[in-house]
Specification:
175 residues, globular, binds NADP nicotinamide-adenine-dinucleotide phosphate
Length: 175
């Protein structure tokens, strides 16, 4: 399974603007890139917080060719949203989540956050690449992409300007 973590952050490393939930701060160029990029994945994993923040869009865009696995300890609360083959809710550690996705025939996973999810997968050594959009903004305060003490080395695959001052950096995670 190839696992690629994808996020948009401010130039000072914030994944949210201050305490505001969601990622409304991202540019239209990043949004175009993000939704286009997702088409190359057959599954995605994210936490219940990210699901709640973006559920209107997710529920509108469910497709049988990309299985979304939402991590939650409260899967009963989300039963009404469960859509077999397209949207499932699981209490699982990263390895269990990946095993379930593989059983469903998936081989290319977009890991979409938030920070607890990114951190668990990084700690298990499961992330192959990191795709970060760097928005030309400084927030000073906001959620970071990872929590805990890491010293993960990266190797730059590519750097591309998506639009005016918006950079897409693709890194491989050195194992
Ligand atoms: N800028 C970006 O690219 C980007 C990307 C992603 C998220 N965000 C934003 O970042 C902010 C932070 O999101 P968040 O902290 O709410 O993070 P989140 O990772 O989306 O949600 C965290 C929740 O997921 C569940 N969870 C995580 N790992 C689990 C596991 N192994 N097993 C079972 N449940 C698990 C737990 O929820 P339960 O309470 O349900 O058990 C946990 O409280 C949000 O505002 C989000 O919109 C931004």
């Amino acid at each position: 399974m190839i696992i690629i973590a994808i996020a948009a952050i401010s130039a000072d490393g914030c994944m949210t603007k201050h305490d505001q939930r969601g990622n409304d701060f991202t540019s239209s160029k990043d949004k175009v890139f993000f939704f286009e990029a997702l088409k190359s994945f057959d599954c995605s994993v994210f936490g219940s917080g990210t699901f709640k923040d973006t559920k209107e869009h997710i529920l509108r865009s469910l497709t049988p060719n990309r299985l979304r696995l939402v991590l939650t300890n409260e899967s009963n609360s989300f039963q009404g949203y469960e859509t077999p083959g397209a949207l499932i809710f699981r209490q699982a550690n990263p390895l269990e989540a990946i095993t379930e996705l593989k059983k469903n025939g998936c081989s290319r996973c977009a890991l979409l956050g938030g920070k607890t999810v990114f951190s668990q997968f990084l700690a298990e050594g499961l992330i192959d690449e990191l795709w970060v959009t760097l928005e030309p903004r400084i927030f000073g305060h906001g959620a970071s992409m990872f929590e805990g003490a890491f010293d993960q080395r990266l190797s730059l695959i590519s750097a591309k300007e998506l639009g005016s001052s918006v950079l897409l950096l693709k890194y491989s995670i050195l194992k």
